[in-house]
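During the second half of the funding period, the structural biology subgroup turned its attention to how the target accommodates small molecules. The most pressing case was magnesium ion, which had performed well in the primary screen but for which no bound structure existed. We therefore specified the complex as follows and requested a full 3D prediction, including the ligand pose.
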Amino acid sequence: MNQIDYNRIRLLVLDVDGVMTDGRIILSASGEETKSFCVKDGSGMKFWKRLGGKLAIITGRQSEIVTRRAAELDVDEVRQNRKMKLPALEEVFAAAGVGPEATAVVGDDLPDLPMMRVCAFSACPSDAVEEVRRQADFVCQAAGGRGVVREVVEHLLKRAGTWPRVMERYLPDGEGNQG
Ligand SMILES: [Mg+2]
């Protein structure tokens, strides 16, 4: 496995279905879609931003729910309805001014593999498909929609040594700085 320079990672790219959600899409009779997101993922994304990281979402589907969730969490770049994810990733690199050597990506299914192969770090949920689990540098304990993004953010920040800066806000006396 390649050596990962965690201090270089500045951009975190996320797939939506199966990563930020459990992969279920609930369709109403009127055709409206519902997805559910994990609050712990949301706070993880806020920690990442607070420490100066950039966030991107690249998804093969299109939904207003994703637009709203992304706005709520101050996601820098959102690309929806992109079945081919690599060209979308190239756009995100250009827009964010960050290259693959400074990018971490989280995916769960085959369309995510090309992104996972080019980025410096890749992660997946515990219930990702086998080929993705084999490609990932880090397989989460959490399943999709159950805190995957939070787990990845904690992993990245702890390896980079910057997690204590997150904890400072909650335990200013330093008790929480062991992790
Ligand atoms: Mg997916």
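Two results from this model are relevant to the next phase. The radius of gyration is 16 Å. The beta strands are 11-14, 26-27, 33-34, 54-58, 77-79, 103-106, 121-124, 138-139.
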